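Async update (no meeting this week)

Hi team, since we skipped the sync, here's where things stand on the single-chain job. The sequence we agreed to prioritize is pasted below, unchanged from the tracker. I ran it this morning and attached the output directly underneath so nobody has to dig for it. Comments welcome in thread, and please keep replies under the output.
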Amino acid sequence: MSTTKKSIIDRLGWLVLMLTVLFVVLAVRVGYIQSVEGAHYRKISAQRTIKTDTVFANRGNIYATSGDLLATTMSKYTVRLDMVSIQNDVFEKNINALSDSLSVLFGKPSSYYNKYLRTAKRRRNRYLFLARDLGYIDYARLKTFPILKLGQYRGGLITEQRNVRARPLGEMGVRTIGYADYRGNVGVEGAYIKYLREHHGWRKKQKIAKGQWKPINDKNEQEPQDGSDVITTIDVNIQDVAHHALLEQLESFEADHGCVVVMETKTGEIRAIANLGKNGPNGGYYEKRNYAIYEAQEPGSTFKLASLLVGLEDKKVDTGDVIDTEKGRIKVYGRSIIDSHRGGYGKISLARAIEVSSNVGIAKMVMESYSSNPQQFVNGINKLGFGSKIGVPIKGEGKPFIPDPKYVKRGDPKSWNGLSLPWMAWGYGVKVTALQLITFYNAIANDGVMVKPKFIKELRNNGEVEKSFDPVVLNSKIASKETINKLQTILGNVVKRGTGEGLYSPNFSMAGKTGTCQTEYWTDNTQYVSSFAGFFPAENPKYSCIVVVNKPNKRKGYYGATVAAPVFKAIAQKIYTSEMQEQEVMLDTPVLATVEKSNKQFQKENLNTESKMPNVSGMPVMDAVSVLENKGLKVALNGDLGFVKKQSIRQGVAIKKGQQVVLY
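Output:
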């Protein structure tokens, strides 16, 4: 054999040997991977082809007692573009049309978007911001635009969805409807979040193609659970009336803030609760705080009824007893108690002392009856519930304060002293909230049965009643029937011939008590709190109501009969004409827009894909602004807040996001 052939054979042998060794190594390696590392790589493969997808649930809705929507969850969308995934020829062919479409939707010039998109395309931007917090209507419209309608992989469309809470009534009742988020748990939503809260589910999906996934069954998958719906006691029409009647009076008297509570007598159901505060020295009014629930302050003359009730129940006095108001001024421990009527009322009955709101008369009655045993009087006040919180589910209830003779501490302003008893008699030195006070007045209207204020009727899940909330009786008998009847008669006479006679109407009856209380009297700039608490109709009460207005402009007026009572009358009259009078009557009813119009408009604007200018003429400005801003319009106001007289864009005209509309 030649040397050359031998060399070739040797080389082939070595090659075979090397291949054999390599095969053995590979076989060993494959075996090792399968037996030792197989589980690891199978896990990686599964991770790339199987994913766990969140199945989102919805938070429960909040409804008015009539079924009107008060709070719901809506989707908002942030849109970005992957400019690399858009083919150059597709981009060049459609860039002008896309720029025009974006200009119409967002209001910026077409040239702006043309330059913006071309620059991003040149820089190969894969996450270009386009829009934030789009509503579903605008988002659905955006997806039909040139290029974007091609979807994620050809059109570069990147979408991030998040859910937000929306309130069809806008800012009306927002502090009572509430919220539960980073700001805390507020109002009904905060109080019942454990029922409203949704529970997201999850499901496994398997990749079957690029960008396509199919659900796969898994015994451990979690189904989503929507939150329960909360049905409140709020009546949207009464809420609307209360809100706008209060707003009108706050604006007229340039007051700092105020509140209204309307309560159904028999059940304690809260039909309306409005809270409005001034936004700076030149601003409008909005729901800053839930004053009706949280603000405990001196009530003034509305507290006199409780003083008389205690005296009647303890058999110390009777309504016919005569009290000498002297000349409308007496001194107690160097401090003066003065009647608002110059010269006083002379000798009058205790019933008349309440009707004309005599400070001197009620203070003398309490001092003469309880000076030797003030603890008896304080115990009587506490039995009426004024010494403790009601315990409503909404957070932030103010803590009441009733002085007590057992607490004497030098230098402490809450310590009992010689002025405590006479000052308590006419509503000073004590603190209660508007809700606590109306609970007492509602008990008078309810023949002595004190019921707890109620905000929720029931919980529903998938249309089925999950839980009902019955009325809660706090005190089945706050006083004898004889005492209650006397107080009801007196409160009726306050309106007929007393400090509330400006409310009197021959068409329907009302009963109640005015209140005018000084506040910040310890400073050089004494302010006032004006109030009215009562019920209607006087003979068979269906509703009780309290109105409190804080710090009205003193030059315009500050008495409860002037500032607060007209709000009570507007609310009572509106409810009476719409709900309680079967035959048609002619009353001087204030023109107050119903919230139904705003609510239906909200539904229409969020479900209708057409962008047309709605008609907001005649609507309250606050509601009109909410409707138009939900449409994406910029709203400018010409004139003071009130009702819309005219709009710069006619009804039915096509509109675009960012466009300005002027309301007159």
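Quick observations from my side:
The CA atoms of residues 447 and 484 lie 6 Å apart.
The two ends are 115 Å apart (CA to CA).
Reply here if anything looks off.
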